[in-house]
């Protein structure tokens, strides 16, 4: 059990039978009445974000999340196969569970699987990945003051805004949290 007074960003807790990670929290001490903690929580099972208010000092269950290294093997329709790097066990996750992550997943890529008491909740990608530009129009010089960008479609199908000097075949460093271009690799 953990007190809501000890909330930290990234902490995983169990509330009403669901597993949440704390995205944001604020301790509020009104002039009249009891203090409370206003929090923003993300459900790890379905990805929904909820706002909850707890009384100060209230205790809730702490969820111990396990992270293991796995390798992405291949896609078969709407199922995606992974292999545990230690036990070599294979398992599949659906495209629905990996909606955002599929924008950055390549075959043979190593990622972390997130599980709670044997239940697989999803995967954690590295903060940045190297992806090749599959298609982009050529950059046209002129008529730009500074910081001009164009669209580029990556090998995974994700589209990002990139500077004009990027060409097809270039390998780029992409931020997986926001899906944005960082630099050339």
UniProtKB/TrEMBL annotation:
Top-level taxonomic group: Bacteria
Domain Translation elongation factor P/YeiP central: 67-121
Annotated Elongation factor P C-terminal domain residues: 129-184
GO MF: translation elongation factor activity
Pathway(s) this gene product operates in, as recorded in its UniProt entry: Protein biosynthesis; polypeptide chain elongation
One Gene Ontology cellular component: cytosol
Cellular compartments annotated: Cytoplasm
One Pfam family hit: EFP
Protein keywords: Cytoplasm, Elongation factor, Protein biosynthesis
CDD domains hit by this protein: S1_EF-P_repeat_1, S1_EF-P_repeat_2
Classification via SMART domains: EFP, Elong-fact-P_C
A single GO BP: peptide biosynthetic process
SUPFAM superfamilies, per the entry: Nucleic acid-binding proteins (SSF50249), Translation proteins SH3-like domain (SSF50104)
PROSITE patterns: EFP (PS01275)
PANTHER family on file: ELONGATION FACTOR P (PTHR30053), ELONGATION FACTOR P (EF-P) FAMILY PROTEIN (PTHR30053:SF12)
Record's function text: Involved in peptide bond synthesis. Stimulates efficient translation and peptide-bond synthesis on native or reconstituted 70S ribosomes in vitro. Probably functions indirectly by altering the affinity of the ribosome for aminoacyl-tRNA, thus increasing their reactivity as acceptors for peptidyl transferase.
Family: Belongs to the elongation factor P family.
Protein name in UniProt: Elongation factor P
Source species: Paenibacillus agri
């Amino acid at each position: 059990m953990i007190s809501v007074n000890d909330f930290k960003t990234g902490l995983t807790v169990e509330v009403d039978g669901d597993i949440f990670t704390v995205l944001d929290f604020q301790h509020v001490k009104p002039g009249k009445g009891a203090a409370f903690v206003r929090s923003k929580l993300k459900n790890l099972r379905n990805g929904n974000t909820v706002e909850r208010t707890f009384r100060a000092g209230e205790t809730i269950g702490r969820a111990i999340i396990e992270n293991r290294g796995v390798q992405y093997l291949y896609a078969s329709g709407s199922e995606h196969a992974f292999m545990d790097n230690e036990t070599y066990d294979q398992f599949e996750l659906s495209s629905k569970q990996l909606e955002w992550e599929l924008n950055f997943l390549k075959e043979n890529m190593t990622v972390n699987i997130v599980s709670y008491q044997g239940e697989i909740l999803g995967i954690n990608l590295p903060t940045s990945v190297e992806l090749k530009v599959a298609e982009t129009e050529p950059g046209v010089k002129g008529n730009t003051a500074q910081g001009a960008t164009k669209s580029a479609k990556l090998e995974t199908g994700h589209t990002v805004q990139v500077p004009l000097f990027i060409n097809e075949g270039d390998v780029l460093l992409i931020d997986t949290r926001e899906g944005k271009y960082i630099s050339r690799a």
